[in-house]
Design brief:
Elements (H helix, E strand, L loop, with lengths): L2 H13 L8 E5 L2 E10 L3 H8 L19 E3 L6 E6 L2 E12 L3 E5 L5 H4 L2 E11 L2 E11 L6 H24 L4
């Protein structure tokens, strides 16, 4: 997610109260925890195949290059969640656990957090449900209290919701 998008979202969120249904589980000056749950009308195996292709669902305006098609993800320990384009490249995260159809976890300080030298861990857990799959997305970010990370949590929550709502919608589409 580029600095311009998150900076505007953070500024706007600081002017508004935290929405009633927000999924900010914990927020303090030195970090926050976000959680989102998505019902997907497909099996965990189908959801996994969509999850590991962020170039298909990630919003363009939350990339450094402005094009989600420049994203790739290698779904194995040590694999890169990367973005490559003619003028540069960026590592958004490094996969630290991959269990196909069940769990994807990567370490990455997304977007402007990269420059802040904070630690972020994103986990996407997939579990069978009556309607197909329940996806639980958790993002934990920690840094120093001087960074006032908790103030950024509502804006980051909104961005994470947008990113993974796209995943859930695409995974729920009937096969073509």
């Amino acid at each position: 997610m580029p600095l311009r998008g998150l900076t505007c979202a953070v500024a706007a969120s600081l002017l508004l109260p935290l929405p009633a249904g927000a999924e900010v589980k914990q927020a303090s000056p030195d970090g926050f925890v976000l959680e989102h749950r998505f019902a997907i009308t497909a099996s965990p195996a189908v959801a996994w195949e969509v999850l590991v292709h962020p170039e298909r669902y990630w919003p363009d305006d939350h990339t450094w290059s402005g094009r989600a098609t420049n994203l790739s993800l290698a779904p194995e320990a040590g694999g890169c969640f990367c973005e490559r384009w003619a003028q540069g490249s960026a590592e958004h995260g490094r996969v630290i656990m991959a269990m196909p159809g069940k769990l994807l976890r990567f370490r990455g300080a997304l977007g402007p957090f990269q420059d802040m030298a904070v630690t972020g861990v994103m986990t996407v857990a997939l579990a069978p449900s009556e309607s197909g799959t329940e996806a639980v997305v958790t993002y934990r970010v920690n840094g120093t209290a001087a960074q006032r990370l908790g103030d950024m949590a509502p804006a980051v929550d909104s961005v994470v919701r947008q990113q993974f709502a796209g995943f859930a919608a695409l995974a729920s589409r009937p096969p073509e």
